[in-house]
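Here's a chain:
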Amino acid sequence: MIKKIIFILVLLIGSSVYSQQIDLKKYQYIVVADMFDFVKETDQYQTSSLTKFLLKKKGFEVFLSNEVLPDDLIKNRCLALFVSVKDESSLFNIKSIIEFKDCYGKLLFTSDEGKSKEKEYQKGYQEAIRRAYETMTDFEYSYNPAVIEVKEVKQKDVNILKEATNETVVSKNVVTPTINVKTTQEKVTVTAALDVLYAQAKTNGFQLVNTSPEVVFLILKTNVKDVFVIKDKNGILYKVGEFWVAEFYENDNLVTKNYQIKF
């Protein structure tokens, strides 16, 4: 009987360790939420900035979600892990867990629980986050771009974008952000008009309609700030600066479109 119990415990421990394995070679950046769910203000008690500071020690380039992100990360959010701190505090202890999710909102890694008995919130949360961080002994930067499939813009696509700059679009519902397009031959800066969509609240998300009006997307909420799942499209919607990017598959081809969305 004892042998069986020991065997079950070994299996449980083994499965726990396995579940924490994560291929860090795929991730160059870490993006930390600028406001965690348990606070009421951006970086309250310096919880976000402390988390950023600690994770930089692991070798990653770390950004807060409200900071300007590198061009390659804007184009491909899947180069980053997205971090938040989960509050598991009890009556007498502040308890924090650092969580890491991928660009689709899938939970990939969690630290062990960090605890603090400090009654003053700033000291308590910071101590708990530090202690949670200290449990991440095997979590170190190992990014290898060779394992990332890099998709470059074809020259004909650049020509199409150049032609688009010659067209003048006049509409109160159009914005014109600057988009940088990189190719192996040159770097071209173009201006592209974005369609405006309007969000209408639905259960677990929103429907996005255009000015016709017709429903363009149904989007579902995730646990990651400014990231939604596009229902029935096998894709995601995420925010980049002041506009939104929709990535989804259509006839087995990956489609990427930019929008201005009014919530």
In short: Residues 98 and 111 are 5 Å apart (CA to CA).
